[in-house]
Amino acid sequence: MTMADDPSVPAGVTVPDTKLARAATELVRDTVSELIYDHSRRVYFFGSLQGRNRDLSFDPELLYIGAMFHDLGLGESFHGSGRRFEVDSADEARRFLRANQVPEDSVRRVWTAIALHTTPGVPEFMEPEVALVTAGVEYDVLGIGYHDIGEDDRAAVVALHPRPGFKQRILGAFTDGVRHKPETTFGNVKADVLAHYVPGFERGDFVRTILDSPWPE
């Protein structure tokens, strides 16, 4: 077993030892880059630790599936989908869960967790699995709540799944994942990414959209 495959960290957070979780790990590891795989695993660990901090009762298996699939839609096969990458990721998770006969309420939770993980201010008020996928993403990408997790626990997670040059590399992955469908960034955070990294990109303007609508008044 390599360090990256170690299912535990000293804080006691464990990757669910279930057939479903193992299948998800294999699928994602074989589909995405090392960057996205390590990021997704960290999202699970950090989301779990934040769940402990917030005294939330959550299903570790559902949180793990949500974390592992949340960036799948950035892949090249989805560049022409015309849909937000979050929706592509959520749909892939839903297909995977339904193929494994997971109950529909659980499927819905995972789909929602992934679809909303870049929509700040909403997931935190929803089911714990939904809230904690976003919490894990916000921790790993944005550093939100950085000091809520102790230095030893944070270091243990990063030792399992290192993040060399992560800031620039993840921004590159975001850019590559959505630059072919810029219209899907209207009204969401990925418009900021394209504005920084894609020359000639023009973000949609909500006010202009209203004023220029075909309504006469």
Automatic annotation (TrEMBL):
Transmembrane segments: none annotated. Residues 37-122 form the HD domain. SUPFAM superfamilies: HD-domain/PDEase-like (SSF109604). The lineage of its organism: Bacteria, Bacillati, Actinomycetota, Actinomycetes, Kitasatosporales. This is Metal-dependent phosphohydrolase.
